[in-house]
Amino acid sequence: MEGWLKQSGATGLDDLELADFSDTGRGIRTRRHFEKGEKILTITHDVLWTVKHAYDDPFLGPALLSTQPPLSVDDTLATYLLFVRSRGSGYDGPRSHVAAMPTNYTSTIFFAEAELEVCAGSSLYTTTKQLDQQIEADYEELVVRLFGRDQEIFPRDKFTIEDYKWALCTVWSRAMDFKLPNGDSIRLLAPFADMLNHSSEVERCHTYDVSSGNLYVLAGKGYEPGDQVFINYGPVPNNRLLRLYGFVLPGNPNDSYDLVLATHPLAPLFEQKRKLLISAGLNSTCTVCLTRADPLPNSVIRYLRIQRLDKPDLAAMGPHPVNAAVEKISDENEVEILQFLVDSISSLLDSFGTPMGKLEEQLAEGFFTPGGNAWSAAHVSLGEQRVLQLAKKAAEDLLAAVGSGSGNKAQCAKCQKVPAQLMWCGRCNGAAYCGRACQVAHFKEHKAICERN
Ligand SMILES: C[S@@+](CC[C@H](N)C(=O)[O-])C[C@H]1O[C@@H](n2cnc3c(N)ncnc32)[C@H](O)[C@@H]1O
Fold first, then answer.
1. Predicted pLDDT of residue 53
2. Nearest to 23, CA basis, from 198, 156, 180
3. 20: exposed, middle or buried (C-beta count within 10 Å: 0-12, 13-18, 19+)?
4. Same CATH fold, 256-407 and 2-237?
5. Cis-peptide, bond into residue 69, ω within 30° of zero
6. Which architecture, in CATH terms, is 2-237?
7. Does the keyword Metal-binding apply (predicted)?
8. Cβ(439)–Cβ(432) under 8 Å?
9. Amino acid 428: pLDDT
């Protein structure tokens, strides 16, 4: 693979080598000193795996082009990988890259039932079960739309569902994403650069240069000969790390819980509430990410305020309500939704197969083999339960504030504190803040609603 890359104009390979590390597995080691910020590696445009490269292939491209609507980015890249892997001749360079990729993965879609059960109750557990079904359905569809059409290009025995799952996991765990100046994004696989492991101790140091189409890796910190070189995959929580990359970081500060909020279409006043939810930047079914930094985002409260509206509340709002549920509707509504929230989070916590305390004990006692699937699942469950505990505490505090009367006053839309004086959004007058810092921090969330009002 290195010979092919050098021929294509890659630079930096002579100062780097593949090596096995006890904590991260295979990765890249430096052979010399690097200053932070120094360019370590260039992988040229020609050898990258992108959707465009797949479409430009003289055999695969026409088959992809005739498939309408086009495949998703991940399916295109997965198909491209399987196509190259299946070729008996030609494609020597890309095939040497595929040959260097792992043959199996530890994403949760490959977990045995007993391993997945360790995180029963977590959002990862649910997502994995849904994903299993989704992958099967997607594969069936791909067979009808593409794989089943041309045995020359898609030999059946090289495009099985197991092959498809391998290719998807390859894309999930090795692809890099970049935002382009025009607002589009690009997802690509870069040979050799995809051997770099993740560390949150380095800043993001891999870039895609739009003018050359090349991928660059800079030193995210100073390195001495023999050090492992890292890149940063981003602030990814353990549930996502395990699902996509097959590993976890114990005590991950980015841990989160994906809370699904849904209203049944047959629920009373559904249509009116759906419109209000949309005007508040939400949807009748939406997933809100609860994090350690923000365990109870405003969107959850706003959703529940709307969900709990009754006929008189809706009538009082008039025909064109603006700023739906930015503020509490009434004390009764607020107490109801907060109590409902506390109860719901408690039941979510009760539904975990193994409670937090027990998991902490098991992990401390070495009950799970460190690094194994069950151990990783235990860390995900622990991380999600910790976030839910924080969310429950935040809901209880808000409930207590409403009960004590301080909840009667308008709250800061970001931190939910009730300061002596609030400053209102000058544009829509629909959100109030305790200060400039909260207003700036809330801007991304507020922007969509502000522009609509
Ligand atoms: C982009 S690849 C990196 C190269 C990979 N180790 C290999 O041998 O091909 C991403 C995969 O590396 C592993 N990995 C990356 N960073 C890791 C870390 N900090 N701890 C454990 N495994 C890691 C995971 O298996 C992940 O799916």
1. 98
2. 198
3. exposed
4. no
5. yes
6. Alpha-Beta Complex (3.90)
7. yes
8. no
9. 66
Q: What is the CATH number of domain 256-407?
A: 3.90.1420.10
> Helix 73-86 to helix 123-142 angle, to the nearest 10 degrees?
60
| Nearest residue by C-alpha to atom 24 in ligand 1 | 245
Positions of the chain with pLDDT under 70: 319-325, 405-410, 418, 420, 428-430, 448-453
Q: Report which of 376, 383, 450, 382 is spatially closest to residue 413, judged by C-alpha positions.
A: 450
Instruction: State the Cα–Cα distance between residues 189 and 174, nearest whole angstrom.
Output: 6
* DSSP letter assigned to residue 107: S
| Residue 245 alpha carbon, nearest atom of ligand 1 | 27
- Residue of the nearest CA to atom 6 in ligand 1? 26
* Residue whose token pair is 């008996």: 88
Query: Which ligand 1 atom sits nearest the alpha carbon of residue 173?
Result: 27
Looking at this predicted complex, what is its ipTM?
0.99
Domain boundaries, the chain: 2-237, 256-407, 409-453
The Cα 417–Cα 430 span in angstroms is 16
By most ligand atoms within 8 Å of CB, the mutation choice from 21, 22, 24 for ligand 1 is: 24
User: Could you tell me how many residues make up the chain?
Assistant: 453
Using a 6 Å cutoff on CB, does residue 385 contact ligand 1? Answer: no
Q: What pLDDT shows up at residue 453?
A: 47
Residue of the CA atom closest to atom 15 of ligand 1: 197
Contact criterion met (CB below 8 Å) for 413 and 283 = no
Kindly give the distance from the C-alpha atom of residue 373 to the centroid of ligand 1, in angstroms, as a whole number.
15
Whether the CB-CB separation of 196 and 229 falls below 8 Å is answered with: yes
Among candidates 392, 377, 371, 340, which has minimal Cα distance to 127? 377
Instruction: Give 228 Cα–ligand 1 centroid separation in angstroms.
Output: 12
State how far the Cα of 308 lies from the Cα of 9, in Å rounded to an integer.
61
- For ligand 1, whether the C-beta of 102 sits within 6 Å is yes
How far apart are alpha carbons 68 and 75 in whole angstroms? 13
pTM of the predicted structure, to 2 decimals: 0.87
Q: How far is the CA of 176 from the centre of ligand 1 (A)?
A: 13
